[in-house]
């Protein structure tokens, strides 16, 4: 009920003050908007795990449940990076030994290099000039002076610090949303109902379902792609196929992430001399990713979210192109909102 003592001028003044405060808040927090969007997407997807739990007198879910789910989410997000760091630490000694050997005696030319059509002879000459002898590799390695290595190390450290801060903000926001989700959700439903008008609750429920379906569909497709490509790793003889399969499944949720992983696997086979196996791994991985990302995932998300295939496809790839990875989940939600608005207008 509006306050009878408040005039329309007062209402307009309050709205302008609220809009100004919102603009300032967005300007201050613009570096963390992606983290907050990630927290919102994860909270919506994980909220069914908290259903049925007894809330406190304020309607908040138990702290231990929200904290446990947040910690588990953080571990799942960090697991692929931790596995990669552990593997890199184990292989660092071999890499240093290989680098010392290359500096002392050069890098032997692979047999398949000369067989590349059209450019094989040229590549062979360049390899012999710059890599096959100790003097050539010594000149290349000498270019990696201390200043270059120091600058690269500082850049990596800065990126890690920024990523850690954004992950921390995401997890704190996720815990807040999970712990106080009932109250925040009620406020959000009230705001949507006031903004949309009739059937505002149904509109908000459709948005929530679209987010949840997109997250579940994306994770399911990524796991399936990692498992299928992992079978290809094992058959082709890729070293440590289970680790490569886990990395493929984890990075399949990133734009072209899985392509990077199975390209490395193919490169490993190529260095070992298994040219045919390397080509088959790359072709098989590309086929799985093209079918999974362009056919299975849009069809799965579109069917569950009641989106036409074309709108689901545009929402996924358009969201990634405009907002990055978080757009993968926000894009279909925006398309769902558009479809609901069109249907309401036509009705």
Automatic annotation (TrEMBL):
GO cellular component: membrane
Database matches in Pfam families: AI-2E_transport
UniProt keyword annotations, A-Z: Membrane, Transmembrane, Transmembrane helix
InterPro entries linked: AI-2E-like (IPR002549)
Record bears the keyword Hydrolase: no
Name of the protein: AI-2E family transporter
Compartments in which it is found: Membrane
TM stretches of this protein: 17-50, 62-86, 156-178, 213-236, 242-270, 277-297, 309-342
Membrane topology: Multi-pass membrane protein
Main location per the UniProt record: membrane
PANTHER family: BLR8064 PROTEIN (PTHR21716:SF61), TRANSMEMBRANE PROTEIN (PTHR21716)
Family to which the UniProt record says this protein belongs: Belongs to the autoinducer-2 exporter (AI-2E) (TC 2.A.86) family.
């Amino acid at each position: 009920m509006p306050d009878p003592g408040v005039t329309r001028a007062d209402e307009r003044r309050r709205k302008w003050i609220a809009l100004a405060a919102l603009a300032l808040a967005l300007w201050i927090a613009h570096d963390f908007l992606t983290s907050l969007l990630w927290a919102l997407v994860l909270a919506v997807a994980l909220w069914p795990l908290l259903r049925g739990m007894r809330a406190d007198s304020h309607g908040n879910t138990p702290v231990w449940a929200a904290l446990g789910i947040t910690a588990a989410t953080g571990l799942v997000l960090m697991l692929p990076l931790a596995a990669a760091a552990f593997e890199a630490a184990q292989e660092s000694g071999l890499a240093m030994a290989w680098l010392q050997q290359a500096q002392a005696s050069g890098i032997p030319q692979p047999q398949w290099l000369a067989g590349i059509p059209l450019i094989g002879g040229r590549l062979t000459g360049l390899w012999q000039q710059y890599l096959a002898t100790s003097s050539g590799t010594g000149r290349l390695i000498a270019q990696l002076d201390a200043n270059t290595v120091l600058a690269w190390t500082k850049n990596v450290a800065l990126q890690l610090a920024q990523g850690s801060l954004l992950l921390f903000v995401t997890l704190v926001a996720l815990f807040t949303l999970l712990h106080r989700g009932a109250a925040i959700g009620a406020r959000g439903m009230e705001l949507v109902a006031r903004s949309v008008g009739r059937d505002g609750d149904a509109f908000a429920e459709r948005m929530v379902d679209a987010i949840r379906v997109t997250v579940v569909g994306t994770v399911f497709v990524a796991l399936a792609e990692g498992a299928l490509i992992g079978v290809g790793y094992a058959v082709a003889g890729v070293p440590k196929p289970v680790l490569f399969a886990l990395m493929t499944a984890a990075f399949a949720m990133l734009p072209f992430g899985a392509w990077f992983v199975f390209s490395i696997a193919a490169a490993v086979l190529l260095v070992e001399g298994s040219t045919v196996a390397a080509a088959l791994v790359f072709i098989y991985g590309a086929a799985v990713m093209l079918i999974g990302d362009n056919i299975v995932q849009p069809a799965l998300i579109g069917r569950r979210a009641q989106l036409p295939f074309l709108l689901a496809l545009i929402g996924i790839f358009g969201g990634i192109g405009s907002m990055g990875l978080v757009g993968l989940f926000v894009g279909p939600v925006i398309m769902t909102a558009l479809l609901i608005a069109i249907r309401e207008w036509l009705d």
